[in-house]
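Risk register update: the risk of archive-format incompatibility is retired. Evidence:
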Amino acid sequence: METSVVRVLTFGDEAALEAFLLPQVESSMFLIGNMRAAGLVDNGQIYQGTYAARLEDGKIVGVVAHYWNQNLVLQAPVDLLALCAEAVKGSGRPIRGLIGPSDQVEVAKRALSIDGSNAQMDETERLYSLDLGGLVVPGILASGKVKGRRIEYGDVDLLTEWRTAYAVEALGAEDGLELRRQCREQSERSVREKRTWVLEDEGRPVACSSFNIAIEEAVQVGGVWTPPDLRRRGYGRAVVAASLLDARTEGARKGILFTGEENIAAQKAYEALGFRCIGDYSIVLLRSPLEYTVW
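Archived output:
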């Protein structure tokens, strides 16, 4: 007799979750990476979340996680709203964002009655993938004209400024003391986790790029930033390539990223590295969080 149940995942469910997520790794990086980093227990610490899943005969067929940062991350082709409700109920946190495949994010948006009045960011992104064996290294990097390296503690002040500018320009954040505090905290964590690279031209930092998520199989690029006065010189493309070369050396086989549908310059830069669009992905960030009782 076939059994079907919706429940919050607990210790011991990790293998079943990976079996569901890894075949669709390109749109599941946040879920896989956070689970591997923090497990399935949710005490509200960084990378932790409450994972609600539908299981059919013991196999997971859909999952939604509600993370420490109040973002709902979706990979639920079935029972999406029921899984959202279960995850939010289990976490007890308000909702500050929706992230996942675009069709699923649209369904959740309608259910939550999210409109432009409360949206800090609401974008459909193009999802890209690259077999790192096919990475095309830009000439300025291959020739040694520019060099990429992982950031060090001495870079934190500069990286904080760049992250703040990125958040304002790309994520619609409001500049201020709280944003700068968050960006410094993220920058310091990036040093510890060794997930951010800086590009130097004759010793001068000119661009940076990070991995939002890095797992054994793949890395997800994010936070690519070149100051406006240094753009159109190939620096962004070069710093992404530098990070991917290191990831490939360390065993990763796939690079993944997403960028705005209207960001043609970024699309061309990534495609020049060998990335190919494989679908779409959406991010919704709210200015004011929604309480879970809305479900």
